[in-house]
Amino acid sequence: MKLKEISRPLSLKVQTAAEKLDTEVTGGYAADLLSCVMAKAQAGNVWVTLQGHPNIVAVASLLNLAGVIITEGMAPDPATLEKAEEQGIPILTTPLTTFTVVGKLFALGVRGVDEIQPDG
Amino acid sequence: MRELSLHILDAMENSLEAGATLIEVIIEEDLAADWLTITVRDNGRGMSEAQLARVFDSFFTTRSTRHVGLGIPLFNAAAERCNGKLAVTSQPGKGTTLQATFQHSHIDRAPLGDIEGTLLTIILCGSCDVHYVHRVGGREFAFHTADMRAELGEIPLTRPEVRHWLEEFITEGEAGLR
Questions:
Q1: Contacts of A61 in chain B (CB under 8 A)
Q2: Strand A91-93 versus strand A67-70 pairing type
Q3: Which domain holds residue B168?
Q4: ipTM exceeding 0.90?
Q5: Count of domains in chain B?
Q6: Which of A43, B143, B144, B162 is the most exposed place for a label (fewest CB within 10 A)?
């Protein structure tokens, strides 16, 4: 599933790196503690969080995540958007809560790292 | 991070990488003023002004294996989340000091966590001395590994009996503050 096949049905607002919406999404991960994300999220995952500071771009870039969904209408810092554009990391925003976003992602068939079989 | 001690571990690892021979860790819990202050001070090679200006930037790192450095940015984010901040001062050739402040009672303040394990990891892995001070209200637990080494003479801190004693000493010292 491509990132745009998630952003459209969830009405996510694409804030950065619109050219990367064809990125293949391998799964999903949700947490607000960056250290947990660094430990668990896998390359190609879409990450759901309400953090908006520039460190999220560094984490997403380090792990090669497909994109970051910022929930609850949190406005990412201008520095975050700037850095994400520069690094080609799609940042998508929504007024929905993390719980609701994850539920909708699940309904679309996006699975968590603990449910994805090694053979895909 | 789930525990503040993980930030301390990360900072102490940075000190070791900077070639420090002494790391001071001071944890001050001022319950009356509702502040928790963590200071990690080393005598390593320190940083230039140019490096220091970029330590809060998560896309700055001195290592070549990857392009991001999140230790200090995450420590800072943890402090800021709790109405505090992280201050970093450094002098080339003299050393680096990190001082993080937290509102003690802040709901998002992570617990100190496994400080015993953090201290033992650093003390037992290297030749670096550790001076540790932990104050809670009026009580204090403190030690300096240089004093221990002087007492032990030729016997290394890593010797199983010594290591076991050290583990108990730190665990009991910390328990006495609770």
A1: 59, 67-68
A2: parallel
A3: 4-175
A4: no
A5: 1
A6: A43
